[in-house]
Each structure stands twice: as structure tokens, then as C-alpha cells.
Design goal:
The chain is mostly helical. The protein has 12 helices and no strands. About 75% of the residues lie in helices and about 0% in strands. It starts with a helix and ends with a helix. One of its GO terms (molecular function) is glycine transmembrane transporter activity.
């Protein structure tokens, strides 16, 4: 279920990832900042419509197993935490038929925050080499023509490069995932009392809940996404460390520089959350009812 949702969102929304990476990649002192529309027009002019899907294979290598492992791990962690009286939810249901509501364990807000943050961070660190591969393949700073051409230099760089950008990724993913799960479960719980009568209606509720949660979480965590991209696609000494990269971005672009690509990431996250969670929970509901 998680793999299918990851595949669907990766293929549908790759242009948002591509444009976001290219907006964030620039060293403003040398190259100036490019606008998403200008980048998209240049890609269409040189590579055609399919150019907007450059890096889709790399994205699927990162996101399909990543989403599958994340959903599986999240479900497992929440199941374990639901056995604890400190994290088990005490929400009361005012209806007897809950077959369309959700199949996931119910936790308190603190439990959802902890489960989402720890699971997402663990998966992010595990798959960080593929995150680097994805970012560099999407970036125009690298002229890769195949995945092997992109992957071989990363392997040759040695283990020290495998976790490049992992710290800002964790600082982005932990609060993002934690906040997302908290807001998602809260909205979904409130929407659940509308008493949807079909799986389609419940999938719509799941999509709206996930989209809203994604928007809130993106706004609060985007600066670390910018830092992560800079560290993974640029090799200059000023981008080798977390604090050094933060200082460089602030010096070159000021506070606004930490929000480069926000609209693209929010659009991507809102849509991927809506697609991913609707597909994930929809498949689980169907499997549970068969």
C-alpha cells in the first residue's frame, strides 16, 4: 500500500521536485536566483515536456521504498505505542460503524508527534544516499545522462559523503512528520464525525486532511529543506557544514533565502500528501473489508 502511494505521487508530481531543486541550487552571488516559470520555460524549450520529469527514476528509487518503509514503520510504531496508556488515544466514537474511518492505530497528539518524527527521521537517514542521488540528478549543475553515471561518483566519494545533508534533512523531517501526523489525525478525526457512507467519501476526507496537514508542516520546516539542497548539490567549502551553510544563505539572500521554493514544495507536499494518504488508507480499507 505504501509503495503504491509512493509510486503514484512520485510520477504525478516530479515536475514540482525538479523545479524546487533548481530554484534552491543557485549560489546567488555567482549566478543570481532563477524563477520557477523561467526555469520551466527553458526546460520546455530545450528538452520538451518530458524534460520536466527528469529524475523521475531517481525519485522513485528514493520515494517508493521510502514511502513503503515509512508507512510500514509508522504503522508498527503506532501499534506499539497504542499499547501504552501514555500514548493511547481516548477519543470516543459516537457511531458504531467505523469501517470507512481509518485502519490505523489511534494515539494522542503527543504520541502522533513522536511516532511521525522518529519514523521519518530513521527512514531519511537510511535512504540519504538516494536523496543525494535524486537532488543531483534533478539539478542542472550536474550533466548526468544515466543513473549509473550519477551513482558511481557518489560511491567513489566514500562513506563520508553518504550522509551529506542528513542533519538538515533530519531537522526538516522530524518536525515535519510529527506535525503532519498530529494535524492529519486531528482533522481526520473531526471530519470523521460527518459519518461518510462510502469508501470514496472517506478517501476524500483523508485527502483533505492530509493536504491541510502538509501545508502547515511545510511552512514550519522549509528553511531546512533549502539548507539540505545546498549541501547536497554544491561542493564549495562554504556549504560543507550545517552552520556554515546557514550563514552563507543568510549572507547572500537574507532571511527570504531560507524560503526559496516554498510555493513549489508546498504544492508538491499538499498534493503528494493528498494522493499518498488517500491511496494508502484506501487500499488498507479495501484489504480489511475483503
Amino acid at each position: 500500500s505504501g509503495a503504491v502511494s509512493g509510486l503514484a505521487s512520485s510520477v504525478c508530481l516530479q515536475p514540482f521536485d525538479l523545479l524546487k531543486t533548481r530554484v534552491q541550487q543557485w549560489d546567488v552571488i555567482q549566478n543570481g536566483a532563477e524563477k520557477p516559470l523561467k526555469i520551466a520555460v527553458n526546460i520546455l524549450r530545450t528538452d520538451g515536456p518530458l524534460g520536466l520529469w527528469r529524475g523521475t527514476t531517481a525519485t522513485m528509487l528514493r520515494n517508493v521504498p521510502g514511502v513503503a518503509v515509512y508507512f510500514t514503520g509508522l504503522n508498527y510504531v503506532r501499534t506499539v505505542m497504542a499499547t501504552s496508556r501514555y500514548f493511547a488515544a481516548t477519543w470516543t466514537q459516537d457511531r458504531s460503524d467505523n469501517k470507512h474511518h481509518s485502519t490505523l492505530p489511534k494515539l494522542t497528539s503527543q504520541g502522533n508527534l513522536l511516532a511521525g518524527a522518529t519514523t521519518r527521521t530513521a527512514v531519511g537517514v537510511l535512504l540519504n544516499p538516494f536523496t543525494i542521488l535524486k537532488a543531483r540528478y534533478e539539478s542542472s549543475l550536474y550533466s548526468y545522462n544515466s543513473l549509473s553515471q550519477a551513482f558511481i561518483p557518489l560511491i567513489r566519494a566514500g562513506p563520508s559523503q553518504y550522509l551529506r545533508g542528513a542533519l538538515p534533512s533530519a531537522l526538516r523531517d522530524a518536525p515535519y512528520a510529527g506535525l503532519f501526523v498530529v494535524v492529519y489525525e486531528r482533522i481526520k478525526h473531526d471530519v470523521g464525525f460527518v459519518r461518510p457512507e462510502s469508501t470514496a467519501a472517506m478517501s476524500t476526507a483523508h485527502s483533505l486532511s492530509a493536504a491541510s496537514a502538509g501545508a502547515v508542516a511545510v511552512l514550519l520546516t522549509h528553511p531546512f529543506d533549502v539548507v539540505k539542497t545546498k549541501m547536497q548539490v554544491r561542493h564549495e567549502a562554504r556549504y560543507t557544514g550545517l552552520l556554515q551553510t546557514i550563514s552563507t544563505i543568510h549572507r547572500q539572500r537574507g532571511f527570504v533565502g531560507f524560503f526559496d521554493g516554498t510555493v513549489l514544495r508546498m504544492s508538491r507536499k499538499v498534493l503528494s500528501s493528498a494522493i499518498g494518504w488517500a491511496v494508502y488508507e484506501g487500499i488498507l480499507i479495501v484489504m480489511q473489508n475483503t
